[in-house]
Amino acid sequence: MKSKRLVLHAFILLAMLGLGRWALIIWFYTSIAFFLSLTFKKEGFSYNVAALLLYLIPLELLGRILEANPFIPYEAGKYVTFAILVYALLRVRIRRGWWAIAALVLALPGMVMVNLEAPVKEIVFNMFGLVNMLLGALLFLNVYITISEVKRLIVQALYPLLVLLFYLIIVSPDISTVDYELGALDDLTADFGSNQVSTVLGYGILLFGLLFFSKWKFSRISFMDQALFLTLTLWSLLSFSRGGVIGAFLALSAVVVLNLISKKRKNQRKIRPSSVLGIVLVLLVSFYVGNTITGGSLLLRYQGETRGTLLGRKEKDLNQLTTGRFDIFLRDVDIWRRNPVLGVGVGNARAIGREEYDNPKIPHVEPSRLLAEHGLLGLIIIAMVYGYPFALIMRQKGLLKRSWMAALLLLGLFSTLHAATRTMISPILFGLAFININEE
Fold it and tell me: What is the pLDDT of residues 249-301, one digit of tens each?
């Protein structure tokens, strides 16, 4: 079965190179129809809904890269995720997760006060990500999968990711000819936003890491798995966008820490030191190779250096390290200070930033956006989304569930700190973190 899937996805890659966006459009809608058809049966319902959502993450990004709009709308991921979650929730008996419903209710006043210049656009762009996060949590808190299905989920999700990876490699210029300036690069991300590409590739790093930790294999050849993992990590590093790599590293580190502090119980297998060492070696080798290719620029990039700081024209501060995101954060917090109760309404933080702060940039940090646009209610939502889920981790009996939950929450929520909810990653990973895993 694995060999057939590899051949199928290799064929899809060739079709994309030959037909471009039309091959992707066919793939996108065929995938949705295929997985949805499998959900009509009660058996395997939970797995197939989760598999579809994970499978679509790279496809959404490819749709943006190949400019498949309007056939695959730019925000298709948010629409499709919302539709799938609503469909699935209608099939599930809700017994847990009322906190997610409460958070949704708290977000309503901000949506009523939406920026009237483009209300639908502002709600979709700013709110659908958060809505999908909460709907996902509500759904997956009430469904179950087995350990074998967890493995299948990870393997299934890697196929479209590898198509994305090799597409980027093939259409990119010779890496030795790229001018590696000390900023995010679009040269090796098909001239598309490197932040989004790095975020999705970082998600792939996490998936490979979870496979290695569990001693599972993607292919039948360990060397091939390691080579794919290294290549994926290297390409994410060469994007010079740091968010995806840092997020994946934090998520994998959390898995290791949980395994160290958790007591081993019956039928539970802890991570072997050799698995941790293997992942560390892959990360170190990929960074060394990337730093060599870039003539040392990669290391400088992760040290927060820019051409300006090296020449002494700019001071290396927190705003410099976060590529301007700290200024956006401070702007949003100041807007909240002036509008503490209900905030200024969805989409208005950017408008006010343009008019009153000389900072027209769209929100990149989801918590500060929630404060500015939802006020005190936004602060409560932050506590529910960024705090409460982590309090639930140690209550989980199974080590695999703890590790799964911590890893997906960390990567999903960390992504909202540098890319808000631009991609499907945050809503889907946040929701899937809560899925119940039968470890018996």
Answer: 999 999 999 988 877 666 667 788 888 999 999 999 999 999 999 999 999 99
Quote the tokens at residue 110: 């901000």
Give the pTM.
0.93
pLDDT tens digit string along 343-371? 999 999 988 998 998 888 887 889 999 99
CA dist 107 and 226 (Å) reads 43
401 neighbors 409 (Cβ within 8 angstroms): no
CB crowding 217-229: b at 16 or more within 10 Å, else e:
ebeeeeeebbebb
Mention every residue, 6+ apart, whose C-beta is less than 8 A from residue 131: 82, 104, 107
Q: What is the DSSP letter of 315?
A: -
Q: Concatenated DSSP letters for 36-74? A: HHHHTSSTTHHHHHHHHHHHHHHHHHHHHHTT-TTTS-T
Residue 434 near residue 99, CB atoms below 8 Å: no
By the 8 A CB rule, do 106 and 86 touch? Answer: no
Domain boundaries, the chain: 1-92, 98-142+325-440, 173-321
